[in-house]
Design brief:
This protein is α+β, with helices and mostly antiparallel strands. A three-stranded antiparallel sheet has the order 1-3-2. Helix 1 crosses helix 3. The protein has a single domain, classed as Aminopeptidase (3-Layer(aba) Sandwich). Helices cover 35% and strands 41% of the residues. InterPro entries: Acyl_CoA_acyltransferase.
Length: 85
């Protein structure tokens, strides 16, 4: 899924991709780091909303780290597209 997002961003002319990784998800943080993502903003808070079983809208803060990675050059992108499936 992450590689597909990178491909979509590159197809739109972007030079980098960024994402928030929740503090309570160290496995995702390690995966992103293995894929070449580095921390750009040490701490941030993402917010998301949901409706509970009573129909009340709730908002939850989610502490996270913001990571980013430059996208591959065009020749590398062709190889990524070929293996993305």
């Amino acid at each position: 899924m992450l590689r597909r997002a990178e491909i979509m961003a590159a197809e739109r002319g972007r030079g980098a991709v960024g994402l928030g990784v929740a503090d309570d998800n160290p496995d995702a943080l390690r995966l992103c780091q293995r894929l070449g993502y580095t921390t750009r903003v040490g701490r941030c808070v993402d917010r998301w909303a949901w409706v509970d079983h009573s129909g009340v809208k709730r908002e939850e803060p989610q502490p996270c780290a913001f990571l980013a990675s430059p996208l591959p050059e065009e020749a590398d992108l062709v190889r990524v597209l070929a293996t993305a499936g």
